[in-house]
What does this fold into?
Amino acid sequence: MRFLVTAGPTREPIDPVRYISNRSSGKMGYAIAEAALEAGHEVILISGPVKLDPPRDAKFVSVSASDEMFDAVHRHADQSDVCILCAAVADYKSAKVSPVKIKKRAGNLSLELVPTRDILDSLGRGQNRRFLLVGFAAETNDVEENAVQKLRAKNCDIIVANDARLGMEGDENELIILFRDSEMRKISRASKKILAHELVKIFSEFATKTFDKKNVMITERN
Ligand code: CTP
It folds into this structure.
């Protein structure tokens, strides 16, 4: 199968030397890419700026701002069987990007922020989508409830929810996996590498089931 994985944070520029970003390390996304390769899948890894080496056998696309990640994902999604959006995409960007460094002045400075485009939501809205769509939900409270809402709102097949405080920078995580049909699985605290292997197994099984169903439908119609 062909896996597309997004990972890491995005950087939303303010001026040539400043940006808005977050604490995402990229470790979970990179571990998923690695695990998918080890399981014999093809992998495209689309990553924001992180301090990790990309897996050698992955096709690697390096991006910075959310708009670049949006374009890269849309270029490759339709050729993928499983799209896993693990990146911590910034929700807001500066309304204006100054071409020169903003100088310090007396008094306060306000920055106008506008929403970024939601990549997961844009893929979920696609008509006749032929790939399994997996989103991540990083929450600090009401993890399960918020994740169920995201699954429905963004029309994903699976949402992997985790506690943002545990998951963002560390090497471990614990996960709640929510499926479209309301099935739920929990994976207790483990290294991101171990979790990634479990996730890849779950995604490829689910994708196989879904694609088989689609093939049956096509056969019946013919
Ligand atoms: N996501 C995305 N594009 C964005 C924001 C988020 O594709 N502009 C994706 C993330 O990659 C993740 C999922 O949406 O798969 C959920 O991201 P998260 O930050 O948990 O949720 P938000 O929708 O941003 O909502 P909130 O920050 O209010 O919890």
The pocket of cytidine-5'-triphosphate is lined by residues 66, 85, 87, 89, 91, 116, 118-120, 135-138, 150 (CB under 6 Å).
